[in-house]
């Protein structure tokens, strides 16, 4: 199972970056706002932060620039290089990038904060549980895990939605049997190169069952936003029943 996950993730993100330049931009307000959200929840004292699937390193650099000590794990070698360039440009020295698979990487440290933004749901339920158990082992006793979780109701609703951009096209579908969001991308003139991201979606009730025996418990759920496709605007604040995702904060389960 691990090999299959790595294979499709590498292919999807390699081509997505090539066609769109995704994840290769600068640090923006979006990334700094995520850091501030963590600080609002846990205070301004510098934290030891682990980011899983760090992409181009924008959040990691934003967090390090605020004085936090950050380790960022990313599978894509080109995105690791981009993150290292960003860190150098911002003069951050309290940041380390690790190129690797976060299902397998060995980390000696324990962390105050673990973040996994916009990507949870790769693989099957057994893979998510394995990752959650690793998170529990990496977490300090009072540490917190911040994760974006995709909702099934939103992606079922927008299934079949197609979008065209200058150099590529995109289409959403939903697998009702596997409860998975399917995100398909291809070059504007060649659908034969299409790649698909497949992410398992979880309602809060599903997530409660998923995390049983992982050493973690849900402490807070905060609705994410939703896309207004008629005006091509992202709405930051919508009710949970309308949201494409939600932020969950996990802590150590009580014994």
What's the gist of this structure?
This protein is α/β, with parallel strands linked by helices.
Structure, described:
This protein is α/β, with parallel strands linked by helices and 255 residues long. The chain has one domain: Vaccinia Virus protein VP39 (Rossmann fold). Helix content is 32%, strand content 32%. It contains 7 helices and 13 strands. It has helices at 2-20, 29-42, 58-65, 77-90, 125-138, 152-157, 204-210, and strands at residues 48-52, 69-74, 95-99, 111-116, 139-150, 162-164, 168-175, 180-187, 195-200, 216-223, 226-228, 233-235, 245-252. Strands 3-2-1-4-5-13-10 form a 7-stranded mixed β-sheet, sandwiched between helices. A 4-stranded antiparallel β-sheet has the order 6-7-8-9. Strands 11-12 form a two-stranded antiparallel sheet. Helix 2 (29-42) packs across helix 3 and helix 3 (58-65) packs parallel to helix 4. The longest helix is centred in the first third of the chain and has 19 residues, at 2-20. The chain is globular, with a radius of gyration of 18 Å. The model has no long low-confidence stretch (mean pLDDT 93).
Supply the key terms.
alpha/beta; Rossmann fold; four-stranded antiparallel beta sheet; 7 helices
- State the CATH architecture: 3-Layer(aba) Sandwich
Give the overall shape, derived from the CA principal axes.
Answer: globular
The ordered string of helix (H) and strand (E) elements is HHEHEHEEHEHEEEEHEEEE
Euclidean distance between termini CA atoms: 31 Å
CATH topology: Rossmann fold
CATH superfamily: Vaccinia Virus protein VP39
